[in-house]
Specification:
The protein is α+β, with helices and mostly antiparallel strands. Helix content is about 55%, strand content about 20%. It has a 5-stranded antiparallel beta sheet with strand order 2-1-5-4-3, with helices on both faces. Helix 6 packs antiparallel against helix 7. The chain is rod-shaped, with a radius of gyration of 54 Å. The two termini are about 50 Å apart. The structure holds adenosine-5'-triphosphate and magnesium ion. Magnesium ion (MG) binds next to helix 9.
Amino acid sequence: MGPGTLSRRLVLRVTALVAVVTVALSMFTALASFQILQQQLDSRLQNAANRPTLRSSGASANQPGDLGGAGLIRVDAFVGQDASGNFVVVHPQPTAVPDGVSDETAVALLVSEIGRVGRDPASVAVPGAGPYRVLVVQRQVGGQQIITLVGLPYSEVTRPMGNLLVMAALLTAATILAAFVLARRVVASSLRPLNRLAATANLVSNLPLERGAGQVPVRVAPGDANPVSEVGQVGLAFNHMLDNVENALAVRHQSEMKVRQFVADASHELRNPLASIRGYAELTRRGSDQLPQDAAYSLGRIESESDRMSALVEDLLLLARLDSEPTLDLQPVDVTEMILNAVSDARAADTGHVWALDLPEEPVLARADQNRLHQVVANLLGNARRHTPEGTRVEAALRRMDGFAEISVTDNGPGVPAEIQPVVFERFTRADASRARQGNGSSTGLGLAIVAAVVKAHGGQVGMDSRPGHTRFTVRIPLA
Ligand SMILES: Nc1ncnc2c1ncn2[C@@H]1O[C@H](COP(=O)(O)OP(=O)(O)OP(=O)(O)O)[C@@H](O)[C@H]1O
Ligand SMILES: [Mg+2]
């Protein structure tokens, strides 16, 4: 029921609707009741006024009960004419006067209200008795005009009206509250499937779909995918979408597998002819000393290029194998010793760089494939050698870190060019293909891709941090 949620809006709207209807109904009922009560009071006034006057009927006493009920005011009077011909009240007799109202007040009321003669009852304030409903009638009795004022307390309308309004207000409040509580429950239970749907969607969004054969093992429960309800339709559509995604991923995975298999097969098949080319070139060059100089040069080139191609084919084959079924020979490997050897090899191969080591005293054992891990370190050291100028300092370091053996190769060379940094671990990424080729003719851009693939197959992590003057490649392999 958070702000802005559908359930909150639904509950508020339903409650508001019920509130408007209830208030309108209460007001209509109150108005109708008011009119009925007032009509009743007016007809009682009429009855009271129609009773014969005391004088003409000969009744003796002041009997308000008989005449119209408690609180009745009745004043009878004759109507005469004064000298100038205006009607005047003559001998007014207050025949019914309730407690608290004096005869004079009653007579004064008749005098002041005489203008209402023959009109509908009206509400007036009687001093000392509050609001009254009064009726003034005139009739002829025995040749004489008699005027009669009757009044009944208006509280006979207002008191029941007050009670009724209080009741209506309480009832309205109770109805609105009940509507709110009920709407909340109904909305919550109706939207529960939607919440479950959202949970399923969240689950799917957290699936590692980029890996594996593309299975999506999550579906909306059949109960929430019933097309009878709107939410069920969404659930059903969601399941269809997941089926579709799963199919698409499976198809893509299959074609990916085919491509990998093709690359693996092609690399494998290229190995033998390449070895033959190299072998024959070497044989020809060695066998005959009388070869012209340019032919001997060409044969030398054929040898070195077929070497390069063999290395490339080996790399491709290795990557293809790591992609499909990484078959690693995992054993406890002394990483300290391995780095020591790799750096000695590098030092022997290249004296132009400054090689440094930062190794812990005690051996660090990682669960790894010795040859593959050696290849990782050799690739990193080879990069630091080949992509930095002479005199660059290269340091290989090792430490334990959160259950991993962390190997790092740091150099103070010019750094990895910024434009290739985001894709440096991807296949065939090279700073400048043409320059690299001219440089030493053996840069393919597969070295770091192999590093990443081998480390991933070990369940480890790779990282790079490079800026001019400081480049560090980090590899983490789980400890044995
Ligand atoms: N230590 C480094 N300093 C500067 N640039 C580097 C460094 N290591 C890698 N690079 C850059 O990253 C690119 C990719 O390296 P990667 O090892 O994948 O390929 P490569 O060395 O070019 O070829 P190979 O497949 O023979 O290793 C290199 O071409 C180079 O531009
Ligand atoms: Mg390399």
